[in-house]
Amino acid sequence: MTQSSTETGKSQGLFFRGSHWHTVLACFLGWTLDAFDFFVVVFLVGTLATSFQVSKMDIVLTLTVTLATRPAGAFIFGILADRYGRRKSLMANVLFYSVIEVLCGFAPSFTVFIILRGLYGLGMGGEWGIGASLTMESVPRRWRGILSGVLQSGYPVGYLLAAVAARFVLPLWGWRAMFFLGAAPALLALYIRAGVPESKAWLKHREPDVRAILRTVGRHWKSFLYLVLMMTMMMFLSHGTQDLYPDFLKTAHNIKDSTVSDLAVLYNIGAIVGSILFGYLSERLGRKRSMLGAFGLALVVIPFWAFGSSIGVLAAGAFLMQMGVQGAWGIIPAHLNELSPDSVRGLLPGLSYHLGILIASPTNTIEYALRDHVGYAWAMAGFEIAVIVIGGIVIAFGREQKGKDFMATADNTS
Questions:
Q1: Phi, psi of 18 (to 5 degrees)
Q2: Is the pTM of this model over 0.70?
C-alpha cells in the first residue's frame, strides 16, 4: 500500500489500533459497573423495604429518584467533557459514583439512602454521555455499529452481574455488601489515566468556553428536541421491561428468588446478544431500519414475556424481549452521536439521553400503580405495547447520519 493510500485509509477510519481497544474497554467497563450499581436496588426491593421499615413502593421510588437526577449529572459532566476533555471528565465521574455507591451501603436510614441514590443519579447521568462520545469519536467509522452494540451491552452485563451478586453475595453477606462492591469502579480511573488517549475530534472541535458550548446547543434546538423525544421512548422501553420484572416474576408468577436471579442472568445474555447483533446489522441495514427491526421483535414476544404459563415460556419470552429491547439500544451510542453537533458531543447525547430518563422516570411508579387496576401482567404488557408503537413512529420519521465524519471541519448536523 502506498503512503497516499495509507493516509486516505486513516482519514476514512479504516484501521483499528491498540489505543482503540483501551478506549472501548474503559468505556464499556464504566457503563457496566455503573449499570451494576443501579440494578443492585432492583434485586433488593423487598429486602430494603424490610430493613428500612418502609413499603416496597418507597423503595421503587428510589429508582425513580435516581433516574430523575441523571439529567443534572449529564449536564454537569457533559459540560466538563466538552470544555476540559473526555478523558479527565470520565475519570472524575467514575470516582464520584464509586464513592456514592459505597456510601449507600452505610446508609443508616431510608432518608439517607434516598438522598444518596439521588446523588448516585448524578454520577450515572454523566458516565454514559462521556463514554459514548469518547468511544464513537475514537474508533474507525466502519466499526461504529458493532462497537456501539458492544458499548451498550455493558448495561445488560451490569444487570447480569447484579443478578449474580443477588444470587451469591446477598445470601452470604447481606444487602450492604452488594453496595460495597461499588468500590470496584474506582480502579477503572487508574486504567483510564494509563491507557486511554484523549479524543482527537474533541481537540479539533473544542469550544473556547461554556457560553460557546451552550450557544451551540441553542442553535441546534430542533435536533435536540427530537433526540430528547426519541430517548424518552427508548427509556420507557428499557426501564418498563427491566426494572420491575424481577418483582413481577416473584409476585405474579410466584417464582422463588434464586430462580428469578437465574432468569435475570439468562435474559441479560439475550440483551448482550441483541446489542451486538443489531449494532452490527445497523452498519449494513442502517440505524433506523435496524432499530425498527428490534422493536418488532420486542412487540411479538410480549405474550410470552408477560403471560407465559410456565418458567420455560417466561424464560424464552424474557430472553427474546431483552434481545429486542437492547438490540435497539445497541444502536443508540452510534446513532445519537452521529446526530449531534461536533463541538457539543460530550454534552448533547448524554443530556438528551438523560432528559429522556427524566421524562420517563415515573415508568416504574406508573406500572406499579396500574397493577392494582389491570393486574401486574397487563400493566407491564399494555404499557410496553403503547411504547413500542409510538417509539417506532418517532424513529421512522427521524433522520439518520450513518458514517458521519467526526473529523470534518464543517459541522453538517442541524
A1: -60, -35
A2: yes
Contact 350, 74 (CB under 8 A): yes
Q: What is the mean pLDDT of the chain?
A: 84
In a domain, 10, yes or no: no
User: Using one digit for the tens of pLDDT, what is the confidence trace for 62-116?
Assistant: 888 888 888 899 899 888 888 888 888 888 888 888 888 889 989 999 999 999 9
Q: Which three cell numbers stand for residue 147?
A: 462497537
CATH number of the domain residue 121 falls in? 1.20.1250.20
Number of domains observed in the structure of the chain: 1
Whether residue 9 lies inside any domain: the answer is no
Q: For residue 399, how many other CB atoms are within 10 A of its CB? A: 13
Structural domain contains residue 48: yes
Q: Quick one: pLDDT at residue 66?
A: 87
Please indicate, yes or no, if residue 254 is contained in any of the structural domains.
Answer: yes
Question: Within 10 A of 58 (CB to CB), how many other CB atoms are there?
Answer: 16
Q: Kindly state the cell numbers that stand for 59.
A: 423503595
Domain ranges, residue 336: 16-193+220-396
CA–CA distance, 67 with 354 (Å, rounded to integer):
8
